[in-house]
Amino acid sequence: MRFLARPARGGRSEELLKDHLAAVARMAERKVLTLPISGRAHLAALARLCGLTHDFGKYTTYFQEKLPPLEKKPPREEYSHHSFVSALLGAFVAKSRHPEDVEAPLLVYLAIHRHHGHLVTPQEVLPRKEDLRDAPTFAGLSSGLRRELAAVEAQLEDMRGAHREQIVSELAELGVPEAEEFLSLESWWKLLPEMRRSCRRLLKGGDPEATRRYWRLLLLFSALIDADKHVSAAAAGEPSRHSIPPSLVEDHVRSLKDHEAPGSPNARRLAGMRDEIREECARRIEERPLDELYPAILSLTAPTGSGKTLAALETALRLRERIRKETGHLPRVIYALPFVNIIEQNADVIESVLRRCPGFDASPYDHLLRSHHLAPLTGDENEEEAVEDKLLSTEAWEPEIVVTTFVSLFESLLTNRNRPLKRLHNVAGSILVLDEVQSIPYEQWRLVGHVLTTLVSDLGCTVIQMTATRPHILPGAKELLKNPEQNFAGLSRTRLVPHRNVRTIEELADFIEDIKSPNRSLLVVLNTISSSIELYRMLKERLDLSPYREYGREGADASIFYLSTNITPWQRSRRVRLLKRCMRRGAKPLVVSTQVVEAGVDLDFDEVIRDQGPLDSIVQVAGRCNRSGDIPTPAPVYVVFLENENSRPFAEMVYGRVLPLISREMLQEEVGEPELHALVERYFATVEERKSDDFSIEYIAAVRELEFDRREGEHITISRYRFIQEELATMPMLVEMNERAAEAVESLASLYREKEKNRTRIRRAYREVAPFTVTPTVNRLRKNFPPQHPEIPEHFYLSLDEIRSSGSTFYDIETGYKWGEDEAMLL
Fold it and tell me: Cβ distance 51 to 39 under 8 Å?
């Protein structure tokens, strides 16, 4: 019998099952064997075993006859499933071959059992001995598990039949002679409680190897599922790797200097500081022993505007090249930032450097990946196979440098989900640059610290934390700069000026009327969307300012701009680009915003006003004031203390009580930039004393106990982890801002109209509509329900005609979605 893994379809030839198993095994083994981690040869052998056995269950006539052209339905649907019986064979072989590794059978079993789904808590798929007393009827089990175990019995009986000799022969040829003994087992189900007992012993409290076990499982799972998807899609095998000379950064910086104006003393001092920081980091990478740098936790602490992006890029590239020369391993560079809105800015800087790299123009995608939900797929979009291959590469983070968000990174490290775990094997052994680490929620400090520390020790990564305000997340980090405090003391661009008497929106508008000059640009950052919209409308009317709209004007005469997540990402990106252009030409706009401009956005204002919040957030916003140092005297960053009509601070609605309270205690008087570093150090020390670690402790326990997901109970499981904790349900709303948006929405709708849904094309289409999607809370939507899209499930929809209507019921082109005025919507 010709046992197939995949029939001929879509122009692709059929694939024999034995060939598929061999190819997946080779690829999964290579993915682990190339990593610079302890015990890699043994782990690579387990990965190979997973590949050789993961589709063993396809050797049944139930599966083979279900394929075209027969398309014969089995007596029961679960008889054609293959993961459970395949996992049992994998565990059986692992136990036989590696008796010294008591974890191996469990890890192999879980990786194979879930390779078409999400990881679950081991007990969910490992019944107890007492539950199997009436095997092989399994009447004592829940219906789902009972059906699957009964299916295994039927599958084994099928494989023991007319094709047994062929199956045993093919498996022996592949290097799995143990299949013959496995098929001879009469009480195969006894393997399950044995693994459950082993699991219970392994997970019994206080095991220092517990998190290492978590990483070993995720690495095996990642290598298996990514190899399986590549082979199944007939993709072009392992990606080719590309060298990136570290000297590119220095060449880029030199070209920038050729176009720089001399500037003020502050600006010249800042320019000199950028060179000093970059050069000192480079010296550290070249002079220190490699084992102090890789794997390791490093820190780059420097003021805002001091060129940390280029310094970190050169540091990572120099370290990468040194690792290649001294170890043979070429690590990827993963550059993570807190917010989507600053990814493109930093990715543009990195791309401008990489364009100097030989071969970049021929394969830019292989060098740089922008990995976030707003990034479109590039390449030949008319070729469906090319798009599918691109998705495989994108989701697995195969390019040399990946620029992504904290959400994507940490929800790829703390997850049970299949798709993000495809990239874990490429994260292993990488250089992680974490930009603006202070934005990590303080209740997650201990959790993130644990994850990153063990990622370094168990998966061979180097983490470079980069910030102007060093939080106590990775206290053992080795600082790349010898005396980072000197850089802060040498600058005097800004000063924090508390104004405790400004408490209402009306008082803030009065204050702005008093200080706003047509000769100075002003940024106002508030904590809630409701307060920002109210202030924006008030200032526009009082000061008779010309607003920026996407339609009806080019923006050249606009004097007030609005930014928040209440408008579409396309609008935010467009407005930031326009602001940069206008301000370079000498315009002095007034910008009302929420925290979307807080960190990393390269805008430079003459003055800033910030509603109170965490001190590190205030300092980050201060980085948008006199950023380049062109104003010779310290520019003011006014801190106000806004409250709603019930005297509740808006800051508490976003950050809770603890962080704003600590900030208020520390901001008693004016503070100059040279004193900020020490002040922030005291702030983080106080936060460390007062913060609760309950959130972190619960998820660390879930990691150590392999609590991935459970059907029942109130357990804290890894499946529930989200980097950003959404307390309120949201619903996506498609906003047809322009013809491009309308075409993207129609393209997505047309895919849902098709009888046979193509998941690859649908996923690509969702990327195309993402820039035109906003996600108000369900509570807000109930107050002003827009129409639902008739064909795209669970999406509201505003047509192009609705958006361009001056009297739109649902959307204001200046401030975004219209919702109840009586509540405060968060960022």
Answer: no
Q: Cβ contacts of residue 713 below 8 Å, gap of 6+? A: none
- Residue 555's pLDDT band (cuts 50, 70, 90): low
| Residue 572 pLDDT level (bands cut at 50, 70, 90) | very high
Residue 538 phi, psi (nearest 5): -65, -45
According to DSSP H, which parts of 563-693 are helical? 569-584, 615-622, 650-655, 658-666, 673-690
Residues 92 and 169 placed together within one structural domain of the fold: yes
Note down the domain range covering 756. Answer: 733-817
Tell me: do 118 and 202 sit in the same domain: yes
The candidate with the shortest Cα–Cα distance to 63, out of 135, 159, 138, is 159
Q: What's the DSSP call for residue 12?
A: B
- Tell me the three state secondary structure of residue 408: helix
With DSSP H G I counted as helix, E B as strand and the rest as coil, what are the percentages for the chain, rounded to 5? 50, 10, 40
For residue range 234-248, what is the model confidence (pLDDT) as tens digits? 765 677 899 999 999
Rounded Cα gap, residues 205 and 199, in angstroms: 12
Least confident of 354-363, 369-378, 764-773: 369-378
Angle at alpha carbon of residue 677, lines to 672 and 683, rounded to 5°:
105
| 8 Å CB contact between 326 and 495 | no
- What backbone torsions phi and psi does residue 781 show, to the nearest 5 degrees? -60, -35
Tokens of 558: 């606009």
Strands, sheet with 733-735, edge to edge from the N-terminal-most edge strand: 773-774, 733-735, 796-798
Res. 386 pLDDT band, cuts 50 70 90: low
* CA distances in angstroms from 410 to 31, 329, 451, 735, 763, listed in the order given: 21, 24, 9, 29, 21
Do residues 651 and 284 make contact, with C-beta atoms less than 8 angstroms apart?
no
- 23 vs 27: CA distance, rounded Å: 6
Helices 308-327 and 265-287 meet at what angle, rounded to 10? 10
Task: Determine the average pLDDT of the residues in 790-795.
Answer: 93
Instruction: Report whether 487 contacts 273 (CB < 8 A).
Output: yes
The DSSP H or E segment spanning 479 is strand 478-479
- C-alpha–C-alpha distance, residues 556 and 589, integer Å: 11
Question: Are the C-beta atoms of residues 390 and 377 closer than 8 Å to each other?
Answer: yes
Residues 307/277, Cβ–Cβ less than 8 Å:
yes
Per-residue pLDDT tens over the stretch 153-196 = 999 999 999 999 999 999 999 999 999 999 999 899 999 999 99
User: Are 452 and 549 in the same domain?
Assistant: no
Rounded to the nearest 5°, which phi and psi values hold at 499?
A: -130, 90
C-beta atoms surrounding 824 within 10 Å: 15
The alpha-carbon radius of gyration of the chain (Å, integer) is: 29
Query: Of the candidates 464, 484, 504, which is a domain's last residue?
Result: 484
Token look-up 């470079």 returns: 464
Mean pLDDT for 341-369 is 89
CATH number for the domain spanning 32: value is 1.10.3210
714-737 per-residue burial string, b: 16 or more CB within 10 A, e: under 16: eeebbbebebeeeeeeebbbbbbb
pLDDT of residue 377: 54
d(CA 601, CA 343): 9
Same domain, 451 and 510: no
Please check whether residue 701 lies inside any domain of the structure.
no
State yes or no: pLDDT of 404 exceeds 70. yes
Q: Are residues 67 and 174 in the same domain?
A: yes
Sorting pLDDT into bands at 50, 70 and 90, what band is 672?
Answer: very high
Stated pTM of the model: 0.90
Question: pLDDT tens, 289-304?
Answer: 999 999 999 999 998 8
Considering the domain architecture, whether residues 204 and 263 belong to the same structural domain is answered as no
DSSP state letter for 36: -
Give the containing element (helix H, strand E) for 495. strand 494-499
User: Cβ distance 667 to 418 under 8 Å?
Assistant: no
264 and 181 belong to one structural domain: no
Give the C-alpha separation, 289 to 294, whole Å.
Answer: 9
